[in-house]
Amino acid sequence: MADRLSATLGADVVVNLGGDLFARGSGPRGDGWPVGLGGSTLLLRDQGAATSSTRKRAWELGGERVHHLIDPRSGAPACGDLGEVSVVAPTALEAEVLAKTALLLGSGEAPAYLDGKAAAWWLLP
Description:
This protein has helices at about 1-10, 90-105, 110-115, and strands at about 15, 20-25, 35, 40-45, 45-55, 60, 65, 70, 75, 85-90, 120-125. By secondary structure, the chain is an alpha+beta fold.
């Protein structure tokens, strides 16, 4: 949706839809749109970014902490060793898919999966 909305709004906009965003154009100073990811600020131009996390949208169920990200391999909430993954990719849609998949894969498999697919990424425990 961020990709589509940015195309509708104009040639130089940033659209942030709660963790999924697309930065179109050169930004306010001409060097890109400043976007904070993984504790860093990047200047994005015609790129998408997304963060997936198990830290929010969580609740207690039967004495166990669960969250909204479901691992399709098990049908249960993801239980890997990563708490947050942020990704920069050509589109917001690609960034979202890459971030969620990397989070589900965990720190052991995520770097190899993201290598060559993402422009940048952060894996946080």
